[in-house]
Design goal:
The protein is about 45% helix and about 25% strand. The chain has about 190 residues and is α+β, with helices and mostly antiparallel strands.
């Protein structure tokens, strides 16, 4: 009989512990009322409304001209643009040096392509040149005209000939990239060198 009393006592202890755990969970998690659906709908409505003002991040002194683009273009990200411009510079110069007209055609405007094509046909390109270093020296100009975003970027590049570090040539170039203001594509076209 003593053993049976202990089992009954154990059941009561476990029941008290279960009630305590349920009480604590309910106080932590809360209880459901009929208002959660309406609150969630209000939050979703607030999220779907577009921001009326474009946030301009802190820009370096040599990037300050990009404010003009931030003021007029939603979802503009200068870091992504500059990273893409740097990659485009390398791809375009490498394609030019190698005489790769097909690659150039997709990345540059007709006028720029024509100039590159003429230089390649006249063999003024140098297939033995390759990149040694490349930095972006700042933004020369940034504006929106006739529905197009135009950003001019200053590049400082170093190229070496025939893998010889003693033959490094340093160049400073200003390239203008352009794309339609309402375009969602990440692709920019080189329109001026």
């Amino acid at each position: 009989m003593v053993y049976g009393d202990l089992q009954f006592f154990d059941i009561i202890i476990f029941a008290v512990i279960a009630v305590f755990i349920i009480y604590r969970l309910r106080s932590v998690l809360g209880k459901r009322t009929g208002f959660q659906g309406q609150q969630n709908n209000k939050k979703q409505e607030q999220k779907t409304q577009p921001d009326q003002t474009n946030q301009i991040p802190s820009l370096l002194d040599n990037e300050i001209k990009l404010e003009a683009v931030y003021k007029k273009v939603n979802n503009f990200d200068h870091k992504l643009f500059l990273e893409g411009a740097k990659k485009a510079f390398e791809i375009i110069i490498t394609a030019f040096n190698n005489g790769d007209k097909k690659t150039l055609k997709d990345l540059v405007s007709k006028n720029v392509y024509s100039a590159f094509e003429t230089a390649i046909n006249n063999k003024t390109n140098n297939p033995s040149a390759q990149f040694y270093s490349l930095i972006i020296d700042g933004i020369e100009d940034a504006r929106i005209e006739s529905g197009n975003i135009m950003i001019s970027v200053n590049f400082i590049s170093e190229q070496m000939l025939n893998n010889d570090e003693k033959s490094i040539i340093k160049n400073k170039d200003t390239w203008t990239f352009e794309k339609p203001e309402n375009s969602t594509s990440p692709k920019w076209i080189l329109t001026q060198t």
